[in-house]
Please model this.
Amino acid sequence: MKFSTNWIAELTDGGLATPAAGLAQLITTKTAEQEGVEAVGAHFAQVRAVRVIEAGPIPGSHNQRARIDTGAGEVTLVCGAPNCRAGLLTAWVPPGTTLDGGRAIGVAIVSGVESHGMLASGAELGINKDDDGVVELTDIAPGSPLDGLRPDHVIEVDNKSLTHRPDLWGHLGMAREVAAITGGRVKDPVDPARLPAAAPAPFSVEVADHTLCPRYSALLFENVKVGPSPLWVQHRLQSIGLNPINNIVDVTNLLLAELPQPTHAFDADKLQGSTIFVRRARAGEQIEALNQEIYTLDDQALVIADAAGPVALAGVIGGLDSGVTGTTTRIVFESANFQASSVRKTSSRLKVRTDASMRFEKAQDPHNTTRALARAVALLEAVCPGIRLVGGLIDNSAPLRTPPAIELPLDWLRRKLGRSVEASEVRAILEALAFGVTEAAPGVFTVTVPTWRATKDISIKEDLVEEVGRMLGYSSIPPTAPAVPATPPPADLERDYLHRLRSIATQQGFHEVYNYSFVNEPQVRELGLDPAAHVRVLNPIASDQDLLRTTLLIGILRNVRENARHLEEGRFFEIGYEIHKRAGELPDETPHLAAAVYAKAGDGTAGLLEAKRLAQCLAPGADVQVAAEARAIEHPRRAYEIVWRGETVGRIFEFHPKLVEVGRAAIVDLNLAVLQRLGQPAVRYSPLRRFPASDFDVSVITGLHTTAGEIQAQIAAHAGELFQSVEYVTQYRGAPLPPDRKSVSFRVTIASAAHTLSNDKISASREALMAALRTAGYELRG
Amino acid sequence: MMESQLAELKASALARIAAAASAAELEVIRVEVAGRKGSQLTELSKGMGKVPPVDKGRIGKLFNETKTAIESALDARQAAFADAALNARLDAEWFDLTVPPPGVRPGALHPITIIQKEIEDLFTSMGFTVLSGPEVETEFNNFDALNIPPDHPARDMQDTFWLEGGHLLRTHTSPVQVRGMQRLGPPLRMIAPGRVFRNEEVDPSHEHTFYQLEGMMVDREVSVAYLIYYMKTLLQGIFKREVTVRLRPGYFPFVEPGFELDIQCLLCGGKGCPVCKQSGWVELLPCGLVHPNVLRLGGIDPEQWNGFAFGLGLTRLAMMRYAIDDIRHLQGGDLRFLRQFA
Model:
């Protein structure tokens, strides 16, 4: 929303002493966030009315040479406008003037003629968008400044920060704020006496549902002459971003930007019948709007209709057929109030947002409809001489609500703010903002809310804390440390755990990545998953981001592929949530850790071992077993399960070369929910041995696919009561072993708590173990 | 006779010892000259019996002196050989430690993790609990319970990803306030970092997926003054220096009054520069006193309890701290970017 400081000054008694930049800062700290101040029409300090004395062609140019009367002498200049002619009263930009946008006007040779300044179009002066010719003026003496056109500053305020303030969508509301901030007084431009005296309404209004349309007011005018507005009106609208259209529409826009009551003018002669209906649309009804779009309505949209059908989308946009045109002579001037949520729904469903709908969405004040009509009478008379009212006020209204009074205990207010404040100061602030204040009991104010703040904005005492606080200035509140118990907070075990895992993974050389929660069908299918098992986004930002991930591997695979373009190798991991669909309730979100070791060179075994080390660092003591079956995405001979404390907690595998074509990627995928549930076993100290342990080596000859882990388990099971531990030493393939056999060696440690083992005892243990292994079907060496 | 023999032996032994070329040669000399059996010294000592008694004391002393001289010469020479051998070995062990160590270098935490952890630690040290909530939320928790009923214009401020089943991807971490109030009850102090989603086109400064940290305190007495205190402490912790903050009105339906908190530009000190768009202030976080409706919907009686809440953009903070100029790097998974944070 853009605010003209000239306009604000006009609505403030005695004008405005604060310069625009300072004013903008005050607005930011006390009211709403301003986004910048722009000087508009600074050139109007220099621009003057002039009369063209004579104009003639310049040979070889489409320009004309014009002699003008500036009121202070004659000047020659070159003009390219087709309407430049002798006798024309127009606007002259003297040399030394800079126009909005930075264009500097001086003395220049144009088409071989010395040209002093220029004659300007409406667009060049920033009055409107008219660029067809120079401005045409009437009834003005050469040398005079242009009527009502003065240098101005426009302050832009962030619309988001006005979401809760229906009143601040107009200059009157902002003028009230400014007056309250600067200690001035706001000047209401509305004179209620301008409404017609009691007289029969010239037509009737039927409102089907007062919830949707609490109030519908209107006036009928005749003897309307549609034409351009005075230049000052056009400039005022143009400078705050509204396009001047014609005098009637411009008045509706002035009211919208001032009070801020959206209004609409119908061509009365194009309305069928003598009743205006405010009703829900019938499903399938159509309307061609002023923006020349045709909208097909459902039965939710609220419309203004005549006997023949919809003539406007209530609170959003008028119909094209009933709109004001150059031939209009009678108008119905509508000033109504519509339910905020209904307007918002219609506008968002039909995707048409207008200056009117934006205001109604914020819940406008029903008291304002007739105020706007009183103001309209004055403005229309100014811009459309000869216009006449017909009959009385049309006003179909639900009973107007008196806002409830709010009890404001001053002590409570002080505690909320955390600073002291005098009762008189609270009263002065609230009264400046048009609240009514009475002291119901000592230290307790009863506050009545102005109707324009009562629709949605202010209803409870907390809302008044903001009013008082912002006007006092939050910088006046000293930061204060609260007196609270100094107890340690309950720990979030999951978060602590995840941070620990992150720290371990980085120590092992892995970099943390964050991948998106969004995936798509091709990615899901590539991983061998069913798209239907994924939560679907109804309004995805792009069609390739329409599912939520049920695995982190899609992101990890993408990371592998993209990094492989730049790097020979890489290690990374992500901790994130798999999102699994559940019928009728929120999805299950399971924390996982997925990691990859990628290397362009090598046979991939080093990466798998690194992956295993990572898994064992994250889940100390975890075992790895060959998976019963490899999935399609996995190397068929390199898929493993991670088993920890008796449960499968994850998987290690190498991506199938169909997925990773160049190089090898070893992957770890751990279900952290299971890991965390299992928890770390409590550490229990076991006493150190008093007598030395002894060890011996055992080598087992097996088929190539017998795992060391399996043999080791057998050794542990058969090593007898002295057994302490068994460790893998090495394995060997080659002569004299046949090609399908390998030898795997282990070191077995045995010990006794009672004495040092004798050599005989050690040999006996070894022999017993070897016999047991042979019995279990193993071939042994040595 | 004996005297001259001793002098001769001493002279020849010392000369041989000095001339020894190696420890092994020296050992041969030791055996020949000073060994226990059959050495030159041993042989000479046999002649002691023939020395007249009157000379015995003098000659005996001379013998011992000769023996000691030879033995110390042997020891000194041996020590010199040992030293030389050690030095030679050490000299051969010259090592170039400018080569990289074997094994992988540590990885890096994600920059947002780094910032998040710092802020978590800061708040836990001040008695705040860290809570988490799901990425997929109910419409109630994300909007209604935060005083944003259906058709509230504030819903337009947050472009929402809607999911089948009427759920949504949380547009802010604020739903964890609701979960926190229900789970902990008053009084409470909590923060909730997490991933949030907005339906926005991605470009260098916009992302549909980003990270926030929500905070809330509920107690008997909670004032704007407390809020400012915690926010100042937080920002000093983050920026590790004195900061100047200001509150100004800001509208968020779940707080009343609501504020935007600005920090005086750390780059220009408030004089105005491109970073603060010449205003001297940088908008940093929205905050406010918890709206009574939000307390009520969280099962807390607003007549008995008060609260403040704030939201912090972790993504934005990370970008500020590390001068990251393209938000897309944060979820790009490019190791060339990520390993810079090790």
